[in-house]
Amino acid sequence: MSAIETGAAPAAAAPAADASAVLELQDLRREFRVHRGKSVVRAVDGVSLKVARGEILGLVGESGCGKTTIGKLVMKLIAPTGGRILRKGEDCTDLDRAATEAYRRRVQMIFQDPYASMNPHYKIRDVLEEPLLIHRVGGSRAERAALAEEVMAKVKMTPAAEFLDRHPHMLSGGQRQRIATARTLILKPELIVADEPVSMIDLSTRAEILHLLKTLQGDMELSFLYITHDISTARYFTDRIAVMYLGRIVEIGAQDEVIDHPRHPYTRALIEAVCEPVPGRVGVKRALNVTGEIPSATAVPSGCRFHTRCCYAKEECASLPEPELQDSGGGHLCACRRWKEI
Amino acid sequence: MSDNKDKNAKEPVLEVKDLRLHYFTSKGVVKALDGVSFRLDPGEALGLVGESGCGKTTTGVALLNMPSPPGRIVSGSIKVGGVEIVGMEEQELRRTVRWSRISMVFQGAMNCLTPVYTIRDLMLETWRVHDDAERPDLPKVEALMRKYLALVGLPEHVLGRYPHELSGGMKQRVVIAMALFLEPQVIVMDEPTTALDVIVQAQILNLIKDLKAERGISYIFITHDLAVEAEVADRIMVMYAGKAAEIGTNEQIFGEAGPAHPYTRKLLASTPRIKSRVSELAFIPGSPPDLVDPPPGCRFAPRCEFAKPKCHEAEPPFGEIESGHFAACWKAMEDPEYERN
Amino acid sequence: MNLRDSLEGLGAFWKEFSKNKTGLVGLGLLAVFVLLGLFGTLVVPFPGAIDHWRDIGFWQDNPQAAPPVWTNWFAKRKGVVSSVLDRAQAEESTLDSGARVSSLTFDYDFGYDLPPRDVVVRFEGSGLVPVTITLERPDGLVAELYRAQLELSEGDVQRVSLARNCSQEVVEFLRASDEALAASLDADLVKPVSLLFSRLSPGMAESPEALKGAYRLKVNAFLFSEDARLAKASAVVSGHVSGIFGTDMAKRDVFTGLVIGIRWALVIGLLTSIVTVMAGVLLGVTAAYMGGATDWLLSRLYELIFLMPVLPFLIVVSAIFKPTIWTLILIICLFFWAGPFKPVYSMALQIKEETFVEASRALGSRSWRIILRHIIPILLPYSFASMALAIPSVIVYEASVSLLGLGDSSIVTWGQLLNDALGQGAVINQLWWWVVPPGLMIALMGMSFAFLGTALDKILHPKLKTR
């Protein structure tokens, strides 16, 4: 069963690959066996999406929705149990060692914890040179040093010499994240998977990092898969947003569309729950339209997986099979049967 | 145990004057809190907001007089319900002040629940440590536990569960119940919702609002997130580099006119909004100063776009901008209308 | 990470290390050991001992089972310190008959409370040489002790022991002074040297009183034929006490043995500890990182080795072949790598989960790269501390093995010394100076490495935390 992204006629076989998409996921699945194989966690349960060239796609969801797992699948740190990963139209799901190496040059990752993502014993110089050494780019020390300085300039860490001989713990969180970004840029990738890149950084520096990433998007025509639980930063940073719940995408579309006109009840609850720095909120409770807690990923509810918490749920939401993503107008897709009525 | 007729009196339930807390490390004396003063009235929620290293968590632990070594309260006064706790003996603090007058929900507390004890055991231990009596009155304690669990929206059977059997939201509710059930006058909450999902966070914030309205408990709400602070705090104190930068009511800080201190303004401009359309997120270049050797003058001056020579030389006093609204800024005091539109 | 970085790192490390008193003590002790190990032969009284440890001839002139010299401090009656008299006033003269006479006079200042056990005169030379030996006592009496012809050959040493060869002559000497006494003595039972060095008195045979003063030992060698030659003559006074740590039953100087043993202790200790820790670390990290079948295999191997009792294994091996020190080292290495394996395994498991390891994999690192460049460098401090701490156990192990007679008897180790001691009746004869010093040395060397290891651990351990 493949997910159908657009409202086009359903294809019987796997949908045609889009050669222009820097990343395409087709019905990607990943299961984990837990409790000695007695239960199965369906962390990613049929996700399809595309990231175009030079586009930033935000993947938004709460803990356990599978967004981090998607990041790892795209980075090939773990292998999918179903579905396909495509890059520029080519199937990259199962690659041999050489092809994986080539893949890794094109797809890079920025991690959430800017300190933990670098070996604390390494100097910044070593951190930046590691990808070069792994992929045998830059034959001499001088060449590698030049490349390192080039990317330092791109992330505005100049003069480079001031930072190259320091250890990560000597830099601030924002600076470290910039070095982490520089590390991803040094091999000139096409796609960067950014997993919560600013959530461990001070508020006043977050925008700086996001601004930097956005500049890189423009200058280098980079694409980003921006994984976050914070939908409000997604507003500033992304072109399109995909909302995930319990392993599936429940809504996807242009960012202002999704945020200003959310269709899926979960997206609505998510947006409703976000706090704003505005007066007059004390003593006023939020109407959340969501009940209960996120169910365990080992026991995904039948039918629409959100129905157990949805206050608009009807009988059919539980009994009919899971709704696919349908176009609600202008490329704004949502996986809710009843969106028109709500 | 307290009684809430305090809320009718004008006496503040918490009064802090010129509090200084320093960490005596091998690399020098870190002046984590360098002269902080504020008061908390009965039934009020005061927000302490700032970024990492500003001293807000330090203030929280100082209020219970339990800074982690090598920290020490160097000078200043903290009065909880009129009782001076600076200089009080550890034993007395434990039995008469902590948890019974003022309690705390620590940052990440929900992850610090010992996994081998049931919730009942954990709550009982909290009681034992802070109760004055020789032996706890078990039926009474049990009744209190059930009452407060219900208050935080948890069913009774949670008492028999182990922490790992509960979700994040439930654990945080347990921790809040643990801070409540000795019935203190003040609860300090340090980032109680930071580790939670957005929807659960909203639910916990709803709970806190309920508790505030129904029980008349006073809160100190510590967070780095201005948006969350706006949800719960009646008054907000913005901290920077160990000192208070600004203090004002919810309306004064978040209202039309905007805050007075340049730091608060920038912080507000860096906070993303989802519903109101704001084009660009602001950021503040540079980083907070070294607390071992802070710069002379205003500590924010090196990063402030309005800084004048005076700002680098002399530390601005906490000046009154309007009634109940104070800011430690030369510019704000001399030119209150600057950039306010 | 180039040389300058390494030197910088070393400098910073030294600064911190020098603050640690235990570490400095350990380092100091180790420095002493290393110096003694390298230059010990310059310090010991018997430099040639290393090749002649089991050569009886080499040790002939030493007293047997003599306590250390410094025990005289505590003794009421001071025993004679064994010494070698090799400086003599030499005189060459010619007899009327044309024969050459080589006269050597040895001065000996005797101030002890007990007479020497023996005086041995050694002759080296060639040809047939008649010799005479006389002793001039402080009380003016002269004893003619020996008159015989020696057959000297090149490279050979002829020894004349006064205790063995001069009983008759001593009785004769006494007869000249005290008839009655001499008549009462039995030449076979008398102790000639004791009498020679005692005051003349009627009861001098039963309770000798030492005659203190200047003695002169005169040796005359008559060189009649052309090829007769006296190359060298010396006298060895064999006393009651000898050396810094006395002598053993085989007359070997214990102190010399100890110093020689340092080399082997260091070699065995360092070699085994380096090999075992390196192997343990490499295997532990590989098992932890690779997981799966590799992990399973290595963990089972570890369990097998760890639980196997080494001593019975050693006994079996010794029964089959006579082990040399190298086979012993090999066996220790084969078993001891299991020590560091488990801690390293669990540490590596933790490090494996670190984000920077994941980041390195995301960049495209292969497993070997992550193991060598990320995981092992973090474990280096632990490894060094581990090595330092392993050395004492290895040394004690070797000593125990040698003690049981399973070691390599061809080399001199402290364990071997202990083995000899116990085997040759040190305990029964209360020869404490034979047993305590080797044990002390083992303890001291172990202590120095343990101090070093603890200091290293304390300094380097905080950096094991990766944040």
Provide an overview of this structure.
Chain A contains 11 helices and 12 strands. Chain A is an alpha/beta fold and 342 residues long. Chain A has a single domain (23-276, 285-334), classed as P-loop containing nucleotide triphosphate hydrolases (Rossmann fold, 3-Layer(aba) Sandwich). Chain B is an alpha/beta fold and 341 residues long. Chain B has a domain at 244-341. Helix content of chain B is 30%, strand content 23%. Chain B is built from 11 helices and 12 strands. Chain B is globular and about 65 Å long. Residues 1-8 of chain B have low confidence and may be disordered. Chain C is α+β, with helices and mostly antiparallel strands. Chain C has helices at 3-17, 21-43, 162-165, 167-177, 179-184, 192-196, 254-290, 292-307, 310-320, 325-336, 338-352, 355-363, 367-403, 414-423, 432-460; strands at residues 83-85, 88-94, 100-110, 118-136, 142-152, 158-161, 213-223, 229-238. In chain C, strands 1, 2, 3, 4, 5, 6, 7 and 8 form an 8-stranded antiparallel β-sheet that branches. Chain C is elongated. Chains A and B meet through helix 7, helix 8 and helix 10 of A and helix 5, helix 6, helix 7, helix 8 and helix 9 of B.
Average pLDDT reading of chain B: 86
Strand % of chain A is 15-25%
Fraction of residues in H or I helices of chain B:
25-40%
CATH homologous superfamily placement of chain A: P-loop containing nucleotide triphosphate hydrolases
Helix content of chain A: 25-40%
At CATH level 3, the topology of chain A is: Rossmann fold
Q: How many DSSP H or I helices of chain B?
A: 11
Q: What would you call the structural class of chain A?
A: alpha/beta
Domain module tally of chain A:
1
One letter per element, helices H and strands E, the order of chain A comes to: EEEHEEHEHHHHEHEHEEHHHEE
Helix/sheet category of chain B: alpha/beta
Low-confidence segments of chain A, given as residue ranges, are 1-12
Radius of gyration of chain B: 21 Å
* Multimeric state: heterotrimer
